[in-house]
Amino acid sequence: MNITIVNFKGGVGKSMIAHQLITGFGFCGFEIDPYGSLSDRLPESVERIDIQQKNIEKPKKETIFDFGGFDDIKLDQAIGYSDLIIIPFIPTLETIQGTVDTLVRVASANKPILMVPNMSQKENDIGDAKFVFEDTLGFEVEMFPIPMSVALQTAINENRSIGELSKQGGIKAYAYKKGAQLINDLHAKIREYENI
């Protein structure tokens, strides 16, 4: 299964999701983001694609395409290889327009789209965003909210999967269990799109 993670708005959690899927579930990665650090953090698993490069090779293993906040021909190639498009966003007015632009751009590919409201705090904000997205697209979109989580940020800072951190024992493990369950649930949701 291949997944494209994209939003033209930066700072919405694209690399965090990619990092946790790669470290926790064995995906490989292509980082298509000149400002990204995923390939530096995970050099054995993630290959950086130069912004000048015109083509992406078809992946031989399950792959995450972590796409930076820009649009070019490589996005079409990544989506073409992918079974699912994940669009993380922060459910605030400031990030909705960039997310709408991304949705409009990728919707024509006719691939399944999973919206991931990241650092979500209010259910109403997610509902409002869902209304805007569906009104713009004319079809229903599925949401998988990820609430604000210090544990997930710690996992990224320590360059480890949240699942690994949840198994270390003691009081820290308790703090990571909720985040680990969330990422496991996200992975299970992603697998529902396999072979659609």
TrEMBL record:
Highest taxon above the source species: Bacteria
Domain CobQ/CobB/MinD/ParA nucleotide binding: 3-161
InterPro entries recorded: CobQ/CobB/MinD/ParA_Nub-bd_dom, P-loop_NTPase
Pfam families (alphabetical): CbiA
Name the record gives this protein: CobQ/CobB/MinD/ParA nucleotide binding domain-containing protein
Source organism: Sulfuricurvum kujiense (strain ATCC BAA-921 / DSM 16994 / JCM 11577 / YK-1)
